[in-house]
Design a protein that fits this description.
alpha+beta, Bactericidal permeability-increasing protein, domain 1, 5 helices, To_sf, Haemolymph_juvenile_hormone-bd, signal
Length: 225
């Protein structure tokens, strides 16, 4: 079901893009053979976010994170440079909806923040640029790839969030904090950008590592016969 692309073909990038696009209809239910989990929703068991610098001092945990909208992506760019073992993927997501159970404690711009319960976040027009560098290594007499470095950049057009049960269920205080978060999302998003970037890299890298560990370089990107 996956189109084979040859690493020494002049049409490698065109082939890779076509192969990637052909997977889109199957992303909803996931592709176990390629270690791609179901995308609607994409479930992440746990995300921890701890920040002790700048205007934000927070320790938070998000469990059973469910993300919807991943399969509606648009592929903007896909490039593979075998000579440098470099992979570039640029994508846009019109809308992502995240829900989870959260636990949070700390301060935002000197204001205390405390809560645990259900939360959701709506993200609009997310553009993501991923650059990955790999390297060859030998395992069981065959050549495999592994990730040497991965960089992720992203931009957001809008963010709206709601955290239930803030301040031990004090609805007035909780609503004021939610209003503050939504009114100041741009500056807050910049504060946590390094942390969010690390979370994205960790999630992406885990999936790619599984793929690279299972298939040889020749299986993933064979030479032309």
């Amino acid at each position: 079901f996956l189109k084979v692309c040859h690493r020494d073909s002049p049409d490698l990038n065109t082939c890779a893009r076509e192969s990637f696009e052909s997977l889109k209809p199957r992303l909803m239910n996931g592709i176990p053979e390629l270690f791609i989990p179901p995308m609607e929703p994409l479930t992440v068991p746990e995300i921890k976010m701890d920040q002790d610098s700048g205007a934000i001092y927070l320790h938070s945990t998000y469990k059973n994170v469910k993300i919807t909208g991943m399969s509606k992506h648009k592929l903007n760019e896909l490039k593979i440079d075998p000579s440098q073992m470099k992979f570039i993927v640029a994508m846009t997501f019109p809308k992502l909806h995240l829900e989870s159970e959260y636990n949070i404690k700390g301060k935002i711009m000197m204001m205390p923040m405390l809560g645990d319960g259900h939360c959701f976040v709506d993200l609009t027009n997310i553009s993501m640029y991923t650059e990955m560098f790999g390297e060859e290594y030998t395992k069981n007499g065959a050549k495999y790839l592994r990730i040497k470095d991965m960089k992720v950049k992203y931009q957001l057009q809008n963010v709206h969030m709601q955290l239930d049960n803030l301040f031990n269920g004090d609805k007035a205080l909780g609503q004021r904090m939610n209003d503050f978060l939504n009114e100041n999302w741009k500056s807050l998003a910049e504060e946590v950008r390094p942390l969010m970037t690390k979370v994205l890299v960790d999630i992406l890298r885990a999936s790619v590592d599984k793929l690279f560990n299972e298939f040889t370089y020749e299986q993933l990107l064979p030479r032309m016969k």
